[in-house]
Specification:
This protein has 342 residues and is mainly alpha-helical. The chain is 78% helix and 0% strand. Helix 6 runs antiparallel to helix 7.
Length: 342
């Protein structure tokens, strides 16, 4: 199979085929994302979701057949530009009006979740001598909204593509495990439907995780989970702006080593689509279609990033940040539970 890469490089080596290589690279990531989506409908795989399935296929390809160099330009475009477009579309999921009218107390609890997640992850990781950049990505993903948060802040933090892919994969996996645990524990927690829904929305990693955990408990639980989770998604905007200021401050303090981040203009697109989805009357069917497209494009972009992941570095760099993130996830679950109960 490795001959495939050699053959493709020889056939497409001429500069006149640059455009063809570019589009084939995009198509390549799309095909793997489609494979991951299809795989996610099968038993067992349906528990971890399309995005993680797609990343796993990409990592498997990279570590068995190597990186498809002939298609690099299209793959990089997918991991950068299409990623930003997916985040912009993701904004349609955020109902700002609902959050501001009904979820102000949940915004405060969501802010506490973010602070705890980032602080605990970084402190534990530092104690374990883990990778700081990867730990920060995991802390932000744990505190805000999983893969979407990591994908949004990665360009601001000048994070490596490999770190972004590893972070998204870990978030998807751990979030799935916690979702299953929440569903099993629900009957023994002594929470009402609304309380359980809010607890799920305040602590689980992805919107999909919060929804999956809340649905078995009923419609009231689902409404509470969505409200709490949307509050955390809303906080992605101010957190991203704070990170921009922080990175620019660091670039002034250490001009020789720090990289000055460019303003994440796609974040303005995210804010715009959030406003459009909130205040314009868009049919639910259309919003559902946009959400499906956003999820697929995000999975496609994660394939582009996942092709940069080397298993050797995954073993050496990811275990300690993962351990720190697990401690943070358990802590915010316990703290949020106690706040809701008492």
């Amino acid at each position: 199979m490795s001959n495939i890469n050699i053959l493709s490089e020889s056939l497409l080596s001429s500069s006149k085929y640059d455009t063809l290589r570019f589009f084939l690279g995009i198509l390549f990531t799309g095909v793997i994302a489609a494979m991951g989506t299809g795989l996610s409908y099968l038993p067992v795989a349906n528990k971890i979701g399309a995005m993680l399935c797609a990343i796993l296929i990409a990592v498997l390809y990279r570590n068995t057949l190597g990186y498809p160099e002939a298609l690099r330009s299209g793959i990089q475009f997918t991991g950068q530009k299409i990623l930003r477009f997916a985040i912009i579309l993701y904004g349609f999921r955020l109902n700002i009006n609902m959050v501001l009218r009904q979820g102000l107390p949940l915004l405060l609890q969501g802010a506490l979740t973010i602070v705890l997640a980032i602080s605990i992850t970084l402190i534990i990781s530092k104690y374990l001598k883990g990778d700081k950049e990867l730990s920060l990505l995991l802390g932000l993903g744990t505190g805000i909204c999983g893969a979407a948060a990591i994908a949004t802040v990665a360009p601001i933090l000048n994070a490596k593509d490999e770190d972004t892919a590893i972070g998204v994969g870990i978030i998807a996996l751990v979030g799935t495990i916690f979702t299953l645990a929440y569903t099993i524990l629900y009957p023994y927690l002594g929470l009402t439907q609304v309380q359980y829904g809010m607890w799920s929305g305040l602590t689980l990693h992805e919107i999909a995780h919060a929804v999956a955990a809340a649905v078995p408990a009923g419609s009231d639980a689902l409404e509470g989970a969505l409200l709490a989770k949307l509050g955390r998604v809303f906080l992605l905007i101010p957190v991203s702006l704070i990170l921009v200021l922080w990175m620019r401050h660091n670039s002034k303090e250490n001009p020789e080593t720090a990289q000055k981040p460019s303003f994440p203009w796609f974040l303005l697109g995210f804010m715009l689509t959030s406003l459009i989805g909130t205040y314009l009357s868009i049919p639910t069917r259309v919003l559902d279609s946009i959400a499906t497209l956003s999820s697929f494009l995000l999975a496609t972009a994660m394939v582009g990033l996942g092709l940069n992941v080397h298993i050797g570095s995954l073993r050496s760099r990811a275990l300690r940040p993962l351990a720190a993130m697990l401690v943070a996830s358990i802590t915010i679950s316990i703290v949020s539970y106690l706040i809701i109960v008492f």
